[in-house]
Amino acid sequence: MKQIQGVKGVKDILPDEAMAWQHIQQKARNIFHTFGYSEIIIPVIEAAELFLRSIGETTDIVEKEMYTFEDRDRKKIALRPEGTASVVRSYIEHSLNQASPFSKLYYIGPMFRRERPQAGRYRQFYQIGAEVFGFEHPMIDAEMLSMLNLLFQSLDISGLELQINSIGCPNCRPQFREALRDFFAGRLSELCENCQRRFELNPLRILDCKSSHCHALSGEAPKTLDYLCADCLTHFNKVQDSLKSAGVPYVINQRLVRGLDYYTHTAFEFVSGSLGAQNTVAAGGRYNTLVEELGGPSTPAIGFSIGMERLVSLFDSSPVEKQSPFLFIVALGEKAQEQGFSLINKLHKEGISAIMDYSNGSLKSQMRKADKFNAAHVLILGEDELAKGVVTLRDMKNKTQVEVPLLEIVGKFGS
RNA sequence: GUGGGCGUAGCUCAACUGGUUAGAGCACUGGACUGUGGCUCCAGUGGUUGGGGGUUCAAGUCCCCUCGCUCACCCCA
Fold first, then answer.
1. Exposed site from A148, A149, A263, A322, fewest CB < 10 Å?
2. Domain spans of chain A?
């Protein structure tokens, strides 16, 4: 029979790795909560149009990477390629701006993009993201970066560099774009093929081209920070002051531009030196115009998202404790199995972690399994025990064992 | 979408220029130890060599096709 395999670019997170995921997500939730964020659970499917309007119709994500299908009522549905658009949609749809003066929200879940898989890139990938609505002040930018910094620290992840930049606002970005165009117009032939295309579509992206020649060339190009309007410059400087005050190390990367259309002002990335080509672990920025563009009230906002798989691959999971059962019930013979079964039911009702070997194998083989599962204690129920109305309780670590009356077992561990 | 690398047991890998029945370690199961785990020793289970076709007396090995994995480009978390 033909084997059915998982879909390309989609992977199973097996129990060992899932424990690391749980650990990371728990840490993230705790830190988000201390910063006053609440979880929002958003759907995996959305009207496709939401992403056309937020991410931008000409971005690769929308043009060729989005999973879309037509529903039975002929509406175009998309599997979400990112989380921000959904959170913004929800924020508007439920008038969260009315319910609360500001909102701090986070989400954890899978995203979908039909790209060619490679290291750190999957077709179904998980993001941990957060958004803040209703604050324009640069201190919230810094606070958010500080939160991420703390999260990475608490996970003992080192070697990350925080890069920041300001990509301006609708007032000043057009001038910068023009200046870039002017600069590259005379050197079009020197640019790589891709950048010649970028020149037309989005000249900002020439700045982060990996080709060494384009890279060198754009070193001479106009700098985004030189073209910021007064407001943008003040904002950017204040973000830096606040980062210093919070003790968050950073570098300015004037080549940092974001791929999604909706960003304004602050843009940032946490970059790792040890991840391969896809080295951005977390990225985000401010998007002060998006809420309004999607039909909501004019609301400043900022957000980020973390690539879960990339974060996991930097995470050393060896200190994470494996889950092992407290009790392992070994039953020898059918009668003992029945006793054991009723015992384990009582234990479970008391919330005591216990597993039972239903194999009816030899004591030796059941003991081996108890060891394999790393159980703290083993309860042995055999003929001798049955006759005496006791169970043998063995401490696996100390290799000591005592007989305990059957009726006292639950009480012994129950408290 | 484009390009490179790689597919042998559950995992990591062997198999000289094509040459007997494709091996080893780990893991798994059992035994030595008839009711006591880890260590040791012994034995056993496990393979359509990713799949299909071709060349040859003979293919894991050579050729073609195909599928899958992987890395990179594009793009992005």
1. A322
2. 15-172+228-314, 327-408
pLDDT in tens, A137-163: 999 999 999 999 999 999 999 899 999
Q: Which nucleotides of B are covered by protein (CB under 7 A)?
A: 1-3, 28-31, 33-38, 68-77
ipTM reported for the complex, 2 dp: 0.87
- CATH 2.60.40.10 assigned to domain A15-172+228-314? The reply is no
Residue A40 CB neighbours (<10 A): 20
Interval A239-262: pLDDT, tens:
999 999 999 999 999 989 876 778
Nearest nucleotide over every DNA/RNA strand to the A399 CA, judged by C1'? B37
Beta bridge partners of A272: A160
Backbone angles phi, psi at A194, to 5 degrees: -60, -45
- For the stretch A187-223, pLDDT in tens is 887 887 777 877 877 788 888 777 777 788 888 888 8
Q: For the domain A327-408, what is the CATH superfamily, name and number?
A: Anticodon-binding domain (3.40.50.800)
Q: Is A107 exposed, middle or buried (0-12, 13-18, 19+ CB in 10 A)?
A: buried
